[in-house]
Each structure stands twice: as C-alpha cells, then as structure tokens.
Amino acid sequence: MPDHAPGEAASLRHGPPFTDASAYHRLARELKVRGGTRPLRVALLASFTFGFIEPFLRVELGRLGLDVDLFIGGYGEVESLWLDESSALHAFQPDVVVVAVRLEDMSPDAAIRVADATGATLRSSFDALVQRLSALLQARAGDGAGTAGRWTTLVANFAPVAASPFGVGDASVAASRQEAVAYANHSLREAVSAVGGAYVWDYAGLVAAHGAGVWRDDRLWFLGRIPVAATHHPAAAQHLARTIRAAVQPSAKVLVLDLDNTLWGGVVGDDGVEALKVGDDYPGNVFKAVQRHARGLRDRGVLLAIASKNDEEVVRDAFARHPEFLLRWDDFAAHAVSWEPKSAGLARMAEQLGLGLDALVFLDDNPVERAEVQSMLPAVRVIDVEPWGSLPRALAAAPWFDQLAASAEDLRRASQYAEERQRQTVAGAYATVEEYLGSLELTAQAMATSALERQRVAQLIAKTNQFNLTLRRPSEAQVTEWMSTPDTHRVLHMRLADRFGDHGIIAAAVLARHGETARIEVLVMSCRVMNRRAEHAFLSFAAEVARQWGCTRLLGEYVPGPRNSVVADLYPALGFEPEPAMPTTDTMCFGVALTDTALPWPAAIRRTA
Fold first, then answer.
1. pTM exceeding 0.70
2. Which residues is 523 bridged to in the sheet?
3. How do residues 412-455 score in pLDDT, each as one tens digit?
4. 218 vs 50, 104, 152, 388, 582, CA distance in Å?
5. Backbone angles phi, psi at 109, to 5 degrees
6. Which residue in 391, 157, 102 sits closest to 255, CA to CA?
7. Distances (CA, A) of 431 to 13, 130, 423
8. What percent of the residues of the chain are helix, what percent strand, and what percent coil, each to the nearest 5?
9. Rounded alpha-carbon distances, angstroms, from residue 561 to 254, 472, 520, 527, 567
10. 106 near 47, Cβ under 8 Å?
11. Distance, CA of 149 to CA of 546 (rounded, Å)
C-alpha cells in the first residue's frame, strides 16, 4: 500500500463533524484538485445507495490527513463488481474496499415477518447473509491471486432495528429482532477475523450511538434507497473515515498528559496534594474519568507519559499520596516534568522512547501550551478541548488511538517498558556488552508466520520506523497473499524473551525467491531490542530459510528514510557486500553468499524450538 501525504488536506484539522452540508460539498470540490502523491483509493460497495457519503467522506478523510480517490458502486452490485476481475472495481485498483449489506435490502420479508416463535428462521436468514459475505472474503483471499488479494476490506456489521412486530415487547420474546441482530454480528465478526486484511466497520455501534429511531429518513429511503437521514451524513462519514484511517495507518503509541487541571483538578504546586480534585463527586469525577480512560488505553497497549511544568519532587509526592488517583508515577513510560517549554520535553521524550514525534498525542487543558506544541512540533497530534469539563469526551473522541485489532503484545506493551527499565538498571553493573547480554539469558524462537501470528506481523511492519530497512509497509491483505505463495515468498518472524520477561514478536521479514537468489523485501524489528544481537539471529534464520529454498545468495536493500539511519550499516556489519543498485533511486543493495558459515547464529542468544 502506498504512503499517503496529506496534500491540500493539511489545512484541515480533525474535530466534530461540520454542521453545514454545503461546507462539505465546497471542501470536497477543493480536495479533488491535487497532484503528485498517489491518493488512497477507497471503493464503496453496498446493497443501498451509498453515493450520498462521497463529499462528506472525502472531507473527513482529509481532516485525518488522507487524500483520497473514491469509487462508488451502484446499489446491489456488490458481488458482481467483486467477483468479476474485469469489472470497474478491479480496474480502479483500490487500497480499501468497504462493503455494507443489510438484510432488509436482501430479504425484506425475512427482516420484518415473524415466521416462528423461536426466531430460528430470522437467524437462518442472517446466517445465509453472513455466509455470502464470508464467501466474498474467501474468494478474495483464495490462493492470493488477482487484484482482490491485495486490498483491505471493511465489512459493515448489522445495525439495530428501529421497529419490531412485537413493538416494545421485542426484548421479551424468543423471536426478538435485536437478539437476532446481536447473533448475526457475532457470526460476522468471526467470519471477518478469519481472513487476513479484513475488519469489521462498526456500523451497528454508529447507529446505536445516534439512535436507530432517528437514523433513517423515510423520504430519503423510499425515494432514493438512502438509509441514512441527511442530518447524520457527516457523522456517518466521520465514523467511516476513522475506520479507514485505522485500517491503513498505525495507531499512535503514546498519550502525553498534562497534570494540573488535566489529570487532576487544581495546581499541585500552589494548592498542595490535599486540595487536588480527583474523586467520585463533581468536579473530581471529571478528572477521575480522564485517569480511567487513560488507564484503559494503557491496558490496551498505549504508553502513557507526562509533560508538566512543575517540580518533579512535588509531582512524585502527589502520585504517591493521593488516595483517589487511578494512575501512579510508575504507570508512565516517560516523564517530562520541568519548567522548560513542553515542546522541548516532548521532543526529548520521543527520542528517549525511540519513537517519531507522530507517535505522540498530547492532551492539555491550556490552549497556550497546546499552541506552543503545535507550532514547534507539528507532527505531534494535539487534542483540542473546550473548558476542562469536556476533557474525558475529547480524549475518547480522539481518532489517533483507533485500532481494528489487538494482539497479545499490545496488551503487554506497558509492562514491557517497565521491564526494559529494569534491564537498563542492570546494564550499568557490567563492564562489557557481552557480559550484560549474557546476564539477560536471552532466548529466541524464529519461524515461518502462520495465520495465528499474521495480524501481529502486519502490525509490526506497519508501525516500525527506525529499524525498517526498505520502508515498505504492505497491508495485512498483502502479507496474507505472500503467505499463500510459499514457492515464491516466505513471511518470517521471531520472538524474543529474557529473564525479565517476554518481548513477544519483535522482528518480521518477507523473502522473495528469484531463481537461486533470495531477496529481503521487508525487514523490520522493534527498536526496544536493538543492540542485543536479535538482528544477527533473525538474519541467520533468514539465511537458513533461503538455503532450504535452494538459494545460493541472499540480497538485502536499505532505503534511506527520515528515521531509519540507525540501520544504515546493518548489512555491511554482518558481512554483506555492496551490490549494483537500480539507477535513479536512493536504494542501496547488498549481498552475501550463502555458505555454510555465513550469518552464524549469535552465541548470546539461545535458540528454542
């Protein structure tokens, strides 16, 4: 999937949907005029008229920094466009395809009539629809052939019904409409998650948030088969835009929080710890809600950090003594507590964590501080808020943490950083690097990627910036396609652990076979484990796979980027020799003969099965 620059959309900023539809139409026309960077190509297929969303979606994606080309299929053309490789959909070569199919459109009688007392007939109708959608996804996955194998798919789930033949008694009967919808959405999620590069668009959650009873305007539906009232077009577009962005870009990695009047009420240096407002009654419940939401993000794998103009000793005391705090000092992976400009603290924090500035999201109640960070560090995402009562809502509405899948590594990330601090403390006790590495008791498991690890491997490739040799970021759909062609491609990964804890999957690579030569198309590794010989072990395994393929040479590429200079010398350091590079590119090529002694497994790491 290509990298997408914001282009003209850079002047837009994410926020609540506009209230004026004419503003969307005007901005959408302006956003169509662009040049240079290839836009993100999004196709919309539905069992209803989907064209209404075009100007709204174009603008909302622009507000998230994405230029876009849109393809909108006619209603009811989902399967014909999808399955015919000569169709306009395939000619469009989409990066993302959105599929929205409603039971009401496919089988109106099944959606509203009561065929039996148990609801079995209605569930059977939903089963048939889910199977049709599953068959589409499986046909796309197939053996990895064709254009359909390379796009990311978002499948809308089923919205709650606004009316039932049982009226207000729907929840009391076995043939409940709502119960059947819940059953169908569970089945759909399982079907979608079984296919790489496919995700659920939570259309049901969107409709429920606004109310099923007011979501549709009967005039639009009966006249034009448009199932969304005009007043909700902006909200529908914003929700879909956030889902698309989450599918094609990694989520932010760090939430940076101010303290005074953001994480707690009051100014700790002036008011003292006892006067800080955090609790279960107003106004302390506002700040407790912020802490609760931040803790939920941390549980999910987002790192927390502090940026505060304060004395560190005073701040530490507040975290240690206040009985109502849900977060403590050690819950934060980084701390910038000083009287310097906050932009300076954030820049140092990003360097300390080994992350780019675009991995940081900043929440501060003070508009002056927000403006300073936005001016000095435009790559940092800054959450705009109204007076402090809106802080929890603003944090929950921030799109930068949206994520369509969660891995075991995500859920352990915060504890992994705490374990890393232990490792750094221990490192100072050893005179040499080799002694330190030996003390870690490192173990690694390298293997070919299966469906169980596919999602995490695709996520690691998408998120890695520093240790990314080729800067390629294939989608999960593309990774799935490569996995299905083992004669020409191999997707590999490696796990790493030591005596302090399990790092999880820390490296991924894609090898492509060209006769007797294996080329490393993708090579990424988590920056958390750099300089521990993990890269030596992983490339040793890659060479082993290439030899088993019958290859006699292994080639690697280095494409210079804004943040990957740390690995510029990786291949020469491991014994690779320079190879002729393609003209007119910055790509540097290196090769090594695959002798029995080339790229040995490092002694500092014990290999496990």
1. yes
2. 509
3. 666 766 666 677 667 667 768 788 888 889 999 999 999 889 98
4. 16, 14, 33, 39, 60
5. -65, -40
6. 391
7. 51, 61, 15
8. 45, 20, 35
9. 22, 11, 17, 16, 10
10. yes
11. 25
